[in-house]
Amino acid sequence: MAPKPLPFLCFSLLLLLQLHFSAAQGVVKGGYWFPESEFPLSDIDSTLFTHLFCAFADLDTQTNQVVVSSANVASFSNFTTIVQLKNPSVITLLSIGGGNAPSSTFAAMASQSSSRATFIDSSISLARSYGFYGLDLDWEHQTMDSEMASLALLLEEWRTAIDAEATNSGLTPLILTAAFPYTPRINSVVYPSASISSSLDWVNVMAYDIFAPDPSPITRSRAALYDPNSEVSVSYGVELWIQSGVPSTQLVLGFPFYGYAWVLVNANDNGLFAPSTGPDTAVGASDGTIGYDQITAFISQNSATTVFNSTFVVDYCYAGTTWIGFDGTQTISTKVSFAKANGMLGYFAWHVGVDSNWVLSQTASQAWGA
């Protein structure tokens, strides 16, 4: 094929960058993938998403650089190329940290200007070299005001560095996001909303794991949209984020593609808030975690009874003494409608590897619409 004239190439590149920029600022239909899920990267149906997050890059505690383990280099470096085979317009982001990453290591890095600069510069370099369009911070479990102050500085300096890099390179600025809890208040510690709003393109609100089987003595939804009996709910958390100063247009609602399995004390007492002895490790993991694909299999194999509770907006099923709370199609559809009606930017799921034949992903995408 003959080479195209330079003006056409320049126009094409500019158009591509503009398309990606527009997609970054429009609706977010997001999903996380991580190699430890053992779900093949090439099997992701990227046509159901506008944004996909590759998780997780690590913080090297010795150098304060963002790094990818040798086991994950191949999948991370090819992530964008692979998911764009099915959907050339999908936007990819490199996520850093994760729930299992010690909060203390991020706190130490963020407490010093020099280590923050090393972290930031290495993250930008890594994202560019691997072909990602953005970066996502998943620093969890902050417990002190000093950590929140450091977080604010980190985000502000990160945004400045991203803008400067884009100006110097002539490229579209990288997207910058972060995953934070369902509420901006953790006991007496408050997230730095002003810095978050001014520095991030959006916040991925992790609106799940509000409750877990251990140590709760009763069955609960870990991600109820509403709770008429308390202020511990997804909707209330979103309201708090907005009240804190982060507009709804910068909030992306997260929901889980997994549930928790509990052991009922009495098989005949099987509703919400039924007495429980804790996680059902015979069905789920050690903490009761169970993917949606496993839940659908459990329902089929055990002729389990399924219930959608519209008051709390939760799904659950039970068979014998096993009780599983989860987000099924009705819950997902209702949550997406809630996000759209409240002016939120979109939604994301953790994680795509445990969907069941893409049922939940399709439900979410269709509920939001174009």
From TrEMBL:
GO BP, one annotated term: carbohydrate metabolic process
Look up keyword Signal and say if it applies. yes
PANTHER family associated with the record: CHITINASE, GLYCOSYL HYDROLASE FAMILY PROTEIN WITH CHITINASE INSERTION DOMAIN-CONTAINING PROTEIN
Q: Name one GO cellular component term.
A: extracellular region
For this protein, the record's SMART domains field holds: Glyco_18
The UniProt keywords, alphabetically, are:
Glycoprotein, Glycosidase, Hydrolase, Signal
Q: Which GO terms describe its molecular function?
A: chitin binding; chitinase activity
Q: Tell me which PROSITE patterns the record gives.
A: GH18_2
- Give the protein name, as stated in the record: GH18 domain-containing protein
- Tell me which positions the record assigns to the signal sequence: 1-24
* Source organism of this protein record: Liquidambar formosana (Formosan gum)
Q: Which domain of life is it from?
A: Eukaryota
Q: Where is the GH18 domain?
A: 27-370
Instruction: Name the family.
Output: Belongs to the glycosyl hydrolase 18 family. Chitinase class V subfamily.
Q: Name one Pfam family in it.
A: Glyco_hydro_18
